[in-house]
Amino acid sequence: xxxxxxxxxxxxxxxxxxxxxxxxxxxxxxxxxxxxxxxxxxxxxxxxxxxxxxxxxxxxxxxxxxxxxxxxxxxxxxxxxxxxxxxxxxxxxxxxxxxxxxxxxxxxxxxxxxxxxxxxxxxxxxxxxxxxx
Length: 133
Fold this sequence. Notes:
Elements: H1 9-41, H2 48-59, E1 62-70, E2 84-91, E3 97-103, E4 109-113
Antiparallel strand pairs: 1-2, 2-3, 3-4
């Protein structure tokens, strides 16, 4: 019989527990993508490409990661969030990482985090100092 040193037992237990969870998580991700794809086909959400172009045009920089999140409001989701949101991570020209959240149906920017102090996550045209009177 294989005997493991006592200090390795917790690590082995965690690894085995993780392996049991992975198939369920993969299935849930696949189902989420299928629902998002169907929403796009049905015209309930906008294509990702347009949202990414809008984010880069507004904030500049390079896209690092993009996700679509579905909020069914049955669990602990914020009830004010739309059913689908695009989450975009962007590396700005100034070297900051921003997380942008867009309503996937309307293309509206819902949240922006990570901008320099004083910008408050708003695109340049929305900042008081950038408005032309």
